[in-house]
Amino acid sequence: MSSGEKRITRHPVLEESGIRKVEFTFNGKAAIGIKGEAASSALFAMGIHVFGHHHADNSAQGMFCANGQCSQCTLLIDGVPRKSCIVPLEAGMQIESLEGLPQLRDLPGPDVPEPRMIDTDVLILGGGPSGMAAAIELGKKGIDTIIVDDKDSLGGKLVLQTHKFFGSVADCHAGTRGIHIASLLAGEISELKSVDIWSDSIVLGVFSDKTVGIRCPNGYRIVKPEYLLIATGAREKSLPFPGCTLPGAYGAGAFQTLVNRDLVRCSERIFVVGGGNVGLIAAYHALQAGMTVVGLAEAMPQCGGYKVHADKIKRLGVPIFTRHTVLAAHGRSQVEAVTIAEVDDSFTPLPGTEKSWEVDTVLVAVGLNPVDEFFRKASKFGINTLMAGDAEEIAEASAAMFSGKIRGLQIARELGAEDISIPSDLHEKADVLKSPGGKLFPYHPPEIREGVFPVLHCMQEIPCNPCMTCCPKDLIGTSGHPIMGLPEFHGDCSGCEKCVAVCPGLAVTLVDFRKSSESPLVTVPFELGEWLLEQGSEITVTGWEGSVLGKAVIAGWKKAAGFPYTILLKLETPADIACRVAGVVIQEPENIIPLEEPLDVPLRDDAIVCRCERVSAGTIREHIRSGIRDLNHLKAITRAGFGACGGKTCATLIERICREEGIPAGEVTAFTDRPLFAETELGWFSGVNNEQE
Amino acid sequence: MNRNNFDSVIIGAGSVGTPLAMSLAAKGVSVLCIDSAPSAGQGNNKCAIGGARATHSEPAKVALGLRSLEVFRTWKEMYGDEISWYQGGYTYVAYDEETMNLFRGNVPLQQKAGLNIRLIDAGEMENLVPGINPEGLLGGTWSPFDGSASPMQSCYAFGRRAEELGAEFVFNETVTGLGIDGNRVVSVTTDRDTYACGAVVNCAGSFAVEAGRMAGIELPVFPESHEAGVTEPVERLFDPMVVDIRKAPGSANYYFYQHDTGQIVFCITPDPPIPGTDIDERSEFLPLVAARMIDLYPRLANLKVRRTWRGIYPMTLDGAPILDRCGPDNYYVAVGMCGQGFMLGPGIGEVMARFLTDEVNETDKLVLNELRLNRQFTSVEALK
Question: What SS3 state is found at B313?
């Protein structure tokens, strides 16, 4: 018995630490997993992606949100139906797949004391970048603060981010990887005496008696805060396409959780839908984990994410299909293939343009929606409430840290802390950091053939300045905005390579003609693991947007000083292309060729919109066409929205169908929001300890 | 026909107004049903948990309940819509002599009224509700012909049927006043329009009092809130609605059943009552109801709660509805459902339809007499 074959045993950034193997059983058979990992990940490590079958239509069920929200991953764990993605694996666990409805067996309930009431000055919901930044400001002022997060440690989505961050070095740790920012901030918070960290704690509701119900590991708590800060982040949007509920089709967040948190090899070949930063970064994370990314589709003529993110994956050999959409994920019980097609200006697929690939995973990364329902409730109930981060406005984590800092200071001031001044430039900087990719400039790499100098393959204004901050001779600056402006190099470079190592977009190379004018050395940043490189061998090199320029010889590499997970790859490059080389190809084109014939695509209306209750797009459309405009009415008839996730996934999909049907948004009544935010066993609320009975 | 001129205008497209619209339309009456919500049943109908019984203790409600059950039971067969009817019966549990004695007194009267109900002992109760806490269990009552259905699906089905029969509905419109000429209501005005009418029926649920004042009458209806919830679905555990009428700190009775879809739906009555029409969620509800339910049925501790909500019981002093014609000559009320609008609605719809069209039968007369507005409101129902 091994602890599963499907683990990521080497990763360029992440390292396994202190794992303890434990035995458990799955459907009666002995298995081995890692203590404390999500039970779902233990199964993924065994290559098991189908966790059971839905009671309504026997459809295969598996992972979807990997975030404790959707319930698709429910398994019988020691006889009790539980969301396996939030159950830590323990020795001796008996895990069974869930076929149809579970039986409720006669077993002891949660062993918890009676609910407790707790007062606090500030309650922060969410321990991601914005919540942590706020907690730090409040803690520095000695204000009693509770910061709540549903994961076992603070960090939010930062802990999934293996890439270096954009933003400004001075303000938000730009150039540092998300995972490391998370530990920096969490460490800072743990030093603050007035801040209480409640991890593994999930917020279940905000109530009209101005309280917040929280399920903590040691019981249900009803917290009454003076101030509430909603830093709950975002949830991923979804897309309805046939096959979208097959195990293997899920959001980028779930994928990053499996790969970057749990180091599970959940896929071999993936296709990414959506060219925003999330999709682009997920594709990059897949490459880092050693998976093949056969392509990425974006419906718009251009990727919405930062150009450097898109270029980075193109250079590694990932084709990006703009003006394309996904038509279907194919497979009987899990994803086996995907089909995409080109779209016209109204996003209608063009017949004859279909392409299919064999893949085991379709990642859907089509944007984020704020998790703002707690804010709406709290405001309605008259609680002093503010929002920060993605809950308030979807933007990068760097902006979230900023908005959290501002909110922390604001609340401290409201609570009467003395000497609070909110620097006037904070808001301005926060706004800058929220900027999407801006203006594109023409690319004119230098045509110099002597000396040593960096080449900045960065032609889009984005909020990012590490290269300008790191140069010891201060040779990189900008004539534009200090953070947004394009970097420019002027002067006499010492060849220290710091700018190459620090750039989050991997968009800086160093060209060195000093030893050879025929085969100058080009230093390229590389983050996919040195095991992919072979000294003395030839490697295909590409220009900034991924076009193949030719071959170069790997002269060697070294770990970048101060950036241990970035490799500085030295390439002996033909002089004529040296200044234009921006990357190396890792995915060979022959591995990502589409199938000769595209696969047959099921009807669009077969797509499941409500995955909990298995309601199709066709059913929803039919009722909308019959005149139904109240989603609550639609719910009563079709059950869409009645399920475990509480309409978190289907609500936006149904609104999308309404738009497709030409219904003005003002005519549509949204679902009524009611607790609980996440399904929770009744035993948590009773404080009855059945084991004593 | 002028679109703004109706024989009857019903205020409220909820548990009572919707089936009434259906019954009136079936008689060829032109009906308009007005509701401020965006669709039928979006007020307190959808807050009802779905229990339906005839085993009341007063004759009028027994009659209305029996007829309503018949409608629920036969609906799918007759009209094809799924309303999730499940004939699981009702059981009232007794863990103390006082409660058992109450049942011992009631059941013979209910049997005499023709209801299928009987006393059962602890052993039979354990068979009926496998897993019920046996400690101190004395037994209870069992009425197998009662059951449950989905209020939302039912209301939708009734509304659709009403429309097929010619009834009209307008939504997102709030009734703001009545046009009264002498002793008659001649029109109903909303925030958007005015409708001429031959008669008006107040089926406004928790807003019955306000709708009554528009006709110059003060209806003795007192809204209070109860709280309910629903769990994830599981394989069938037991059939009946389980009712525990014992009082405990913070609550009077509570009850739960397993819906057709496998979910446990539950409800609790706060004690003292929470008056008013506020339905915003409160933190004390789940701890209160969870402790009581798990005490009675321990394995629920591992069942996940999915959603909770508050709904309004428009109460009367004796726990029975008011069905009458009052104030202006053509102003009718079907109000004060005391949380039983769903289970009594189809029956009430038919009685009121006959009342409006002067076709009342002998049973209707008894019902309307017992539930008239100017009654004494003293005979408090034993089994609310």
Answer: strand
Mean of the per-residue pLDDT values for chain A?
Answer: 93
Residue type, B239: D
Cβ within 8 Å, pair B152-A115: no
Question: Cβ contact (<8 Å) for B38 and A674?
Answer: no
Query: Pseudo-torsion of CA A443, A447, A452, A455, nearest 10°?
Result: 10
Domains of chain B: 5-67+151-221+318-370 (3.50.50.60), 86-147+222-313 (3.30.9.10)
Residues comprising chain B, all counted: 384
* Cβ–Cβ under 8 Å, residues B192 and B234: no
| A688·B304 Cβ contact <8 A | no
Domains of chain A: 116-233+371-433 (3.50.50.60), 452-592 (no CATH), 604-667 (1.10.10)
- Test A633 with B302 for CB contact under 8 angstroms: no
Chain B positions touching A669 (Cβ under 8 A) are: 38-39
Question: In terms of Cα–Cα distance, which of B184, B179, B181, B271 is closest to B225?
Answer: B271
Distance CA(A432)–CA(A409), nearest Å, equals 19
In 3D space, the residue among B26, B60, B14 whose CA is nearest the CA of residue B335 turns out to be B14
Cβ atoms of residues B215 and B200 within 8 Å: yes
CA A612/CA A64 separation, integer angstroms: 11
Helix (H) or strand (E) holding B225: strand B222-233
Give SS3 for B82. coil
The alpha carbon torsion through A198, A201, A205, A210 (nearest 10 deg) reads -20
Distance between CA atoms of residues A477 and A465, nearest Å? 9
> What number of C-beta contacts closer than 8 Å exist between A and B?
160
Query: Once rounded to an integer, what is the mean pLDDT over residues A270-288?
Result: 96
Please say whether the beta carbons of B119 and B141 come within 8 A. yes
Alpha carbon of A45: minimum distance to chain B alpha carbons (Å): 28
> What is the pTM assigned to this prediction?
0.94
> Residue A29 CB: number of other CB atoms within 10 A?
9
* Tens-place pLDDT, residues B183-240: 999 999 999 999 999 999 999 999 999 999 999 999 999 999 999 999 999 999 999 9
pLDDT computed for residue A173 by the predictor: 82
For residue B238, what is the nearest residue in chain A, using CA coordinates? A104
Question: Does the beta-carbon distance from A683 to B290 stay under 8 Å?
Answer: yes
Interface test with B, best of A117, A633, A642 (most B CBs within 10 A): A633
Q: Each residue of A311-360: pLDDT tens digit?
A: 999 999 999 999 999 999 999 999 999 999 999 999 999 999 999 999 99
Q: C-alpha angle with apex A112: A106 to A118, nearest 5 degrees?
A: 145
A674 vs B286, B299, B309: nearest CB: B309
- Residue A280 CA to residue A438 CA, distance in Å, equals 17
Report how far residue B187's alpha carbon sits from residue B198's, in angstroms, rounded to the nearest whole number.
8
User: What interface predicted TM-score (ipTM) does this complex get?
Assistant: 0.94
Q: Do A101 and B233 touch (CB under 8 A)?
A: yes
The strand ranges marked E within A573-648 are: 583-584, 608-610, 615-616
With pLDDT > 70 as the criterion, what percentage of chain A qualifies?
99
Query: Is A685 strand, coil or helix?
Result: helix
DSSP code string of A86-119: GSB--TT-EEE-EESSPP--S---------EEEE
Tokens of A545: 């947007």
Residue B318's pLDDT band (boundaries 50, 70, 90)? very high
